[in-house]
Write a structure and sequence with these properties.
Length: 303
C-alpha cells in the first residue's frame, strides 16, 4: 500500500492545539505497515474517554472539549483516522475499506494503548467506527456517547443532503477540507481555524481518505459492511452499557437517528440533551457545552 505522510511543519501553526502527537505502526492490511497518530491528555491512570472524529476532520476538532474533560479528571485519547490528521494517508481510494478502518482503530486503542473502562464518544464516521468497536469489544467499553452519527446498514435510504455531499467531495477537482467543515457548522469560523482543518492535506494527492469515506457508507442491503453493522446493532440493542445521545438541532444528515438511539436499552432513564444552534460538527460549534454534558453523564469519581 502506497502512503503519504503530511510534513510536520504543516502542523506548526495550529491554534489552541498544544498537544504532542504520539505514533504507532500497524499492519496496513496489505502486507505493509502504516503509522497512526493520536494525542492524549489527563492522568495516565484515569478512566479514558476515547474521542473519535469523522469525515473530513481530524483530532483538532476536539480542542474545545479536551480541556473540559481533563479538568474533570479523565484521561482523553483522540486518534486521527488513517487518511486524516497526522496519520498516514493511503493514496488510493480502494485502499480504504470500512473493515480496515475499524481494524486500524481497534488495533491502535486496544492492542497498542490497551484502553479499558472506556467511555466512547463518536461523531460522524467516529460513530460508524466507534459503535462497531463497542459492539465487538464490549469488555473494553463502559459507556457510549453518540453525537450526530449513525450505523447504516443500507436497509434505509440516506438523506438527499448526504448524497449531495458525497457527490461534491468525490468529484470536486480540488477539496477544500476547511470549507467542507465550515459548511457543516452553524457558527462563524475564523480563517486560522479553517486552515487548521486544511493542514493535513497539502494537495489533492493526500485526499484519498476524504474522497473515499462517503463511498464506504453502506447504502444498499448487500454492502460489504452491512452484515457486520447489523450484528453491531443487535449487540448494542442488547447491551446495558449506558448510552448518552447528544445530538445537535441543526444536522440534516444524522438528526433522524437521535430518537432511534434514545430507544436503546442503555439509553433508558438518561436525560439526553439537544445542543441548540449547532450543526453537523457540534464539537466545533459547541464543544465546551457538549463536553459539559459528557461530564455530567459520567459517574462521580470514575476519573
Amino acid at each position: 500500500m502506497q502512503t503519504l505522510r503530511t510534513p510536520d511543519e504543516r502542523f506548526a501553526e495550529i491554534p489552541n492545539f498544544p498537544y504532542v502527537p504520539h505514533y504507532c505502526e500497524l499492519d496496513d492490511g496489505d502486507g505493509g505497515r502504516i503509522r497512526v497518530a493520536w494525542i492524549e491528555d489527563g492522568p495516565a491512570d484515569a478512566d479514558p474517554i476515547l474521542l473519535l472524529h469523522g469525515e473530513p476532520s481530524w483530532s483538532f476538532l476536539y480542542r474545545k472539549m479536551i480541556p473540559v474533560l481533563v479538568a474533570a479528571g479523565y484521561r482523553v485519547v483522540c486518534p486521527d483516522l488513517v487518511g486524516f490528521g497526522r496519520s498516514d494517508k493511503p493514496t488510493r481510494r480502494e485502499d480504504h475499506t470500512y473493515a480496515r478502518h475499524v481494524e486500524w482503530m481497534r488495533a491502535c486503542v486496544f492492542d497498542v494503548l490497551d484502553l479499558r473502562r472506556v467511555t466512547l464518544f463518536g461523531q460522524d464516521w467516529g460513530g460508524l467506527i466507534g459503535l462497531r468497536l463497542a459492539a465487538e469489544n464490549p469488555d473494553r467499553i463502559s459507556r457510549i456517547v453518540v453525537a450526530n452519527t449513525g450505523l447504516p446498514t443500507g436497509d434505509f435510504a440516506m438523506p438527499e443532503v448526504w448524497w449531495r455531499f458525497r457527490e461534491a467531495i468525490q468529484t470536486s477537482p480540488r477539496i477544500d477540507v476547511g470549507r467542507f467543515v465550515e459548511s457543516g457548522c452553524l457558527r462563524p469560523m475564523d480563517d486560522e481555524v479553517r486552515e487548521a482543518y486544511n493542514a493535513p492535506f497539502p494537495d489533492d494527492s493526500f485526499c484519498a481518505g476524504p474522497r473515499a469515506m462517503p463511498g464506504l457508507v453502506p447504502t444498499t442491503p448487500d454492502d460489504p459492511a452491512s452484515d457486520a453493522n447489523r450484528s453491531a446493532w443487535a449487540a448494542l440493542t442488547a447491551s446495558s452499557a449506558p448510552m448518552l445521545v447528544a445530538f445537535s438541532d441543526g444536522d440534516p444528515i444524522t438528526g433522524a437517528m437521535a430518537p432511534i438511539f434514545q430507544q436503546m436499552r442503555g439509553a433508558q432513564g438518561i436525560d439526553h440533551p439537544t445542543i441548540h444552534g449547532a450543526g453537523h460538527f457540534l464539537q466545533e460549534d459547541a464543544g465546551e457545552e457538549l463536553a459539559g454534558y459528557i461530564v455530567r453523564f459520567l459517574p462521580p469519581g470514575a476519573g
